[in-house]
Amino acid sequence: MAETQRPKNENELQQIIANANSAGTRLEIIGHATKRGLGHRVNADVLVDMSMLSGITMYEPEELVMSAYAGTPLSEINSALGAKGQMLAFEPWNPTSIYGLKHNTGTIGGVFMGGFAGPRRISAGAPRDHLLGVNAVNGSGEIFKSGGRVVKNVSGFDIPKLMAGSFGTLAAVSSVSFKVLPRPQASRTVVVIGLDVDEAGKAMRQAMASPHEISATAYLPAEISGKSEIDELSKTGLSATLFRVEGPRPSAAHRAGEIIKLLSASEDAVELKSENSIRLWSEICDARLLGQNADSRIWRISVAPSDGPRVARWIEANINAEYFMDWSGGLVWIAINGDAKAYADKLRNVISGFGGHATLVRASDDEKNSIGVFNPLSNTLNPLVKKVKQSFDPNEILNPGRMGAEGIDAA
Asked: What's the rounded Cα separation, in Å, for the pair 253 and 250?
């Protein structure tokens, strides 16, 4: 079992990494390890547990900015923001149900280093779009700072965005500064029952092109809709196409009604208000409706929203799988029943044909090693990624092998 070290401050973290670099010691960097199942297993000599580097260091609600140590629990971040009527805009993905974890919180550092966003991605952007600055230690044991704590700081190369989604393979981030947004007063979801995947794709694109400020759209086939805890979906036995609006209560109510009119769906639509709307989108964000069969292999597919229905049709025709679409079709979650290897090449070839990315979120270590977790890099991008890695971690001691030979996910 690898030795565990728990730095209490940035200087201790710097010393651990500097010593490891000199000795050629491999380090696995974790927070609460909720995303440890994503990516390849790290073969490390020392486990660096960042959870002691915890606490909010700056919060200016009127400026919509916060800074915190990387090991700060996400629950603490959300509690502080909630007390001021604010939130993380991009709806962080919580993978605990997919990986069967008992605890249900990660760290703010893990949120940004993982880089995965939830349903509001189509309207608010990804975690990297909200990351303003980082303090970190690179693989040579050097402390560096990039970015700032205010939105107007745009000078220099955008290293914070480079750190986002790097899974700790470039540097051990000790603290982050990020934007926050006001929490909407109301959340309403229009549920249109019974559309097929092509009709749903058309309806989602139509709604997103409207002036009604849709914050999220998704499509749940009948077998997925039936697993929801929300009775308005699960008891119909039919598919559900979802449209969320948020904001002041009168505005949200008005826009929900306008969406129903826009789609001519008055006879086939219901509205979910507040708590039920929030619960439903939490199910979608965390892919809980797919994670219930522990033996299924789960993929996360990113394509252009217009291509989502075509990917879905291919899945229906070629794979023994369940799926649903988020991001107006731009994100397709798939749970495959059976050997992941049997479908991997076909799936990745199809997704590459659409210019998309396929990430293997849940599988055995042997399957991950055989298939690869992340989308293979192009011949053009591969040398650039290696050069960036070499500049930050020349001896490759930080989370070695975590991202395999494939590179990075496009979240």
From this structure: 5
